């Protein structure tokens, strides 16, 4: 029965890419949005333990970004290769690629935590956690042990998505995020575990309600498009290389964003003080939440365009990209309008958490300005997902770095220091840099599409 459903959805990808994009994207949008909401709720619960607990959690953010980035990277790499093989009619090769991604993930999430736990204190000191070192270690120890829980769902998800099974690829993440919201206070207060309880809660909820259901469907029930049995595993170094060729640049995109964020915090702190940093970081958190529909659409595009790339269906190949680019702009406009309208109530939630009178008005103002980034940068993000779908890892690395670091950071410096706009210049710079980067990336994508099609003739 599951096989029939998968094949039906695969036929939809091949014959109606527009409809397939929307059907694949919607559950992904929901799961990503709930996951980010879950992070916000975690922050609010930790804030009840005091500013030091919240600061300790903040110092762990780079490790969290890296962990999620690894999961995204491995998922993107395997998704691109699987989609291409499916398009070429090579189902066994697609299965082998998926198995390679899992083997790679298991090895990484044994070795990385082991090394990090051994050097935990020096790592956290390097991240600046000197004043809250013990609290950071308390959370970090359980986070490192359960690092797999944050990334493995992102590795398993493409195996379900490749057959069009977006419900089972997304709903476990939604359920685990909701469970974690309620488990947090149980572990923090009822069991008296404090900040460690928050880490344990997240690992338990992700493992029990996200990873285990996916493992059951993929390896035990085996009602997915691919026959995920390790008897079908055939070691092939070229598959590891292919996964990492796309995966490392995809993971580095998160790294570039971290560099940009750190630079913005430094600039704001220098020109306007710590309150400006709090206002911007909170506004950005909400904008990032607003970007999830575009990210969900992009993840769907990786599968759809990868299938047509492998099948050499060039008309539908072009159609998929063009349609995704148009829809991303529409989504950006819709979400911007919603954030603009509801800026005040959204900002007030964070103002309560921060216990700062008047901060909500500043956050609402910042959100209404920074929200334009959703419109100006939407197409640029779609291009990065297109590059994942056609396995252009080097180009992805270069263009993602160009968009995040050069375009946005350069325009921010221009408006802040040369134009003398101060704090306001950071917001204008982000919006302008997003637009400039998106235009350049879109031009490159159109050129690359023409080149790919021409080279196949």
Characterize the structure shown.
Helix 2 (17-47) packs parallel to helix 9 (166-190) and helix 12 runs parallel beside helix 15. The chain contains 19 helices and no strands. The chain has 457 residues and is mostly helical.
Write the layout of secondary structure elements.
Layout: H1 2-15, H2 17-47, H3 51-59, H4 61-87, H5 91-118, H6 120-126, H7 133-145, H8 147-161, H9 166-190, H10 195-221, H11 237-271, H12 274-311, H13 314-341, H14 343-354, H15 359-370, H16 373-376, H17 378-389, H18 393-418, H19 423-456
Helix pairs in contact: 1-2, 2-9, 2-12, 3-7, 4-5, 4-8, 4-11, 4-12, 5-8, 6-7, 7-10, 8-9, 8-10, 9-10, 11-12, 11-18, 12-13, 12-15, 12-17, 13-17, 14-15, 17-18, 17-19, 18-19
Instruction: Kindly state the number of beta strands.
Output: 0
Uncertain regions spanning at least 5 consecutive residues: 1-5
The helix/strand order is: HHHHHHHHHHHHHHHHHHH
The end-to-end span amounts to 39 Å
